[in-house]
Design goal:
two-stranded antiparallel sheet; about 10% strand; about 290 residues; alpha/beta; Cyclin A, domain 1
Length: about 290
């Protein structure tokens, strides 16, 4: 019953044409969007619309969160699930977006057992019950280039779980469960080797040392590099790349070089903002 309603609701969402204003903004501002091969673009357009429609979006700190801004976030998030299904994000129920870095309470215990409480400045976080918090200024800056740092990919990777779903399913075969165990064991071996290098003060090519915080951060850091610098990661961390290739069922290192930004790149920043605001006003007028 619920599946039927969900399919019907999704059909209504996808029956609407993809907004031209969104496509123009994604082409201009999201490097990862331009990197996705043409044959996957239609699927990504569908997935991001479903992602937007099925989440609760909450602007914070006075931010004016527009549908086009939601599309910038959703387009990057949905690249993670292109090799499987957007249903991989079913656990994510709400997305909070601040205009800039925000302060949140943090509690930690040092090696001596002393517990400290303080306000920590953050640009994003993911909560286990399905909420993701993002700072718009930070994610928008990350979106412009493919340099291995992407706030949306990082926080959404914390929320995506493609293999545990297979392992816990009563319909999974023994071979699938064995594959899952092998994947986890290999992943943890790579994580331990990475931590050894970081602890020794050595730089690990293709990976941010922040990944040594714990296994979850290692996965998120590796996911950022996998999608944004796939060929570089494959060259310098081939075992990790192969593992992520299996996990995500994608091969970003084989994607053709992304086209350069459209001609609008030559327009001044002020003019780009003016054009964007005009497009957003047209969209708001049609909705009204």
């Amino acid at each position: 019953m619920f599946g039927w309603w969900r399919r019907r609701r999704r059909a209504r969402v996808l029956a609407e044409p993809f907004p031209a204003e969104w496509r123009a903004r994604l082409e201009l501002e999201v490097a990862l969007w331009r990197a996705v091969p043409d044959e996957l673009r239609s699927r990504l357009e569908d997935d991001l619309r479903l992602f937007i429609a099925e989440r609760s979006w909450e602007p914070c700190g006075g931010l004016q969160l527009t549908p086009a801004m939601q599309a910038v976030i959703a387009a990057q998030a949905c690249v993670l699930s292109l090799g499987h299904s957007v249903d991989a994000f079913d656990h994510v129920r709400s997305i909070l977006v601040y205009p800039d870095r925000y302060r949140a309470p943090d509690v930690y215990e040092d090696e001596a057992g002393i517990v400290t409480e303080e306000l920590d400045e953050r640009d994003g976080e993911a909560w286990h019950w399905g909420t993701v918090v993002l700072a718009w200024r930070e994610l928008a800056a990350d979106a412009r280039t493919l340099n291995g740092r992407n706030l949306v990919l990082h926080e959404m990777a914390h929320q995506i779980d493609l293999l545990d779903a297979v392992a816990s399913s009563p319909f999974s075969s023994p071979d699938e469960r064995a594959r899952h165990r092998r994947w986890r064991e290999t992943f943890l071996d790579l994580y331990e080797a990475f931590c050894t290098e970081v602890d020794a003060g050595r730089r690990v090519k293709g990976l941010d040392s922040y990944g040594a915080e714990d296994e979850a951060e290692f996965f998120s850091v590796a996911s950022e590099s996998f999608f944004e610098r796939g060929a570089f990661l494959r060259t310098h961390q081939p075992a990790l790349y192969e593992l992520l290739q299996e996990y995500f069922n994608q091969d970003p290192a084989a994607w053709p070089p992304p086209p350069s930004r459209p001609e609008a790149e030559a327009v001044s920043g002020r003019e780009r903002r003016r054009l964007r605001r005009a497009a957003e006003r047209r969209t708001a007028k049609r909705r009204g």
